Amino acid sequence: MGIVEIIFGILLIVSSLIIIIIVLMQDSKDEGGLASAIGGGSNESFFGKNGGRTRDAKLNRITKAAAVVFFIVTLIANIVSQVAK
Fold first, then answer.
1. Is CB count within 10 Å lower at the N or C end of the chain?
2. What integer pLDDT is reported at residue 2 of this predicted model?
3. Would you state the torsion angle of the CA atoms of residues 82, 76, 15, 56, taken in this order, to the nearest 10 degrees?
4. Of 35, 52, 34, 32, whose CA–CA distance to 44 is shortest?
5. Confidence at residue 44, expressed as pLDDT on a 0 to 100 scale
6. Do the beta carbons of residue 8 and residue 73 sit within 8 Å?
7. What rounded mean pLDDT belongs to the chain?
8. What is the chain's percent helix, strand, coil content, to nearest 5?
9. What is the pTM of this model?
């Protein structure tokens, strides 16, 4: 395994960890569950709704960017490993 393959492997691990962390940080869009049964988890104020939207929008953009990076690095790593053989 060459140094280039090691670098791409590290980039894949880092980008996959970023995707996992960002997805876990996002709010669930599910209305069911224990929070809705108890009555908690809903913030009906104007500022709460807008703050959630902007945070969710940023997290969605970061998730999409990390997924694109992951996809591109995977393709390049595959091409490099095939050319190296």
1. C
2. 82
3. -140
4. 52
5. 53
6. yes
7. 79
8. 80, 0, 20
9. 0.65
Tokens of 84: 């190296």
Q: Which residue has the tokens 């060459």?
A: 2
- How many CB atoms within 10 Å of residue 19? 18
Total residues found in the chain within this entry: 85
- Give pLDDT tens digits for 21-41: 999 988 777 665 555 555 555
**What distance in Å separates the CA atoms of residue 80 and residue 50, rounded to the nearest whole number?**
45
Tokens of 51: 């703050």
pLDDT at residue 53, rounded to an integer = 67
Within a 10 A sphere around the Cβ of 29, how many other Cβ atoms? 6
What single-letter amino acid sits at 35? A
pLDDT at 17 over 90: yes
Residue 44 phi, psi dihedral angles, 5° rounding? -95, 5
